[in-house]
Amino acid sequence: MLSIVSSAALSLLCRFKSGGIIVNEHTLTLDQTRSHVDILHRHFDFISLAELPNRMGLRHKKPFCLLTFDDGKRSNATVTAPELCRLGVPAVFFVVSGFLDGKRPLWFDRYRLLQEKLGKTLPYGLSSRIVKQLPYDLLLDRIDRACERHGVQVDATDEDICAMTWDHARELHKRGFIIGAHGVTHAVMTRETAANAFDNISRSIAEVSAEIGEPCNSFAFPNGNYTAQLASHAVRCGVRFVMSTEPTWVDQRFPLWRLPRLQLFGPQSRQRIERKISAAALGCILANPDGTGRTYRLVNRLDKLTKQRATQSSSPQPNVATALSRRDD
Prior knowledge:
The protein has twelve helices and eight strands. By secondary structure, the chain is of the alpha/beta class. It has two domains: 2-105 and 154-325, TIM Barrel (Alpha-Beta Barrel), CATH 3.20.20.370; 106-153, no CATH class. The strands form two sheets. Strands 1, 2, 3, 4, 5 and 8 form a six-stranded parallel beta sheet that branches. It has a two-stranded parallel ribbon with strand order 6-7. Strand 2 (45-46), helix 3 (52-55) and strand 3 form a beta-alpha-beta unit. It is globular.
């Protein structure tokens, strides 16, 4: 019964909402890929990244859904992408450029194993409250020491952990998928110095461009944390689309340099997915998974107020980017 109610509520919202959603996924099994596509297709039209600007402010029979996948795990290339290709569903794969072709796992996969082994006895300096507040080099050092001390090793053959190769990425590009940049490392950019963050962003965009043989036009912030200055830097580096993790629908209110995405995960049921999308449509219920809670509501209100004032007066108006640049991520 609850599933029927969730589906009916989402269908009603879709009938009156313009725009659509950008879905942020990570790894999916074959069955999960099929399930997510089936659930989303009931309510949305799947679109490509190139179609996004024209669909953001329009109302269609169905709202749109753009699928994105973060990090560049090998299963994206060997399991998920082939099934999406068979189903005719476009997607964007945001890759950590320094991770591809490498054997070193991303930090959060090793951290998850530490959590599983140590539980509440994690060292204070690696508590869940602190871990994403650390500069990347310090974070790696602490995880390296903890893994060595407690004998934690990652299964390098697990395709949900190990990286795809650049050959995989080029093959995905040839099949029509978009390869976007996701940093050279999976550093939380707002915890880095400005120089390090700028370098991380620019190098990742340049490396993706060089490897796929054409300019990279999209960037997604690791963990979703960003400021207006960091997003502007990505745009100066040549990208057109910049993704965050603000859990709301996408419409004409959002500039292309600040595109919200709704995180979904493989094991989630149809009921939970539909309820989460419905909550995102209201734009004020879900917390941002980047750790900033619901501060995005204030940003959106400021943005809306700025646009309202701009239509009422020809005098210069304050830019919402100022508020974003001061946001403590």
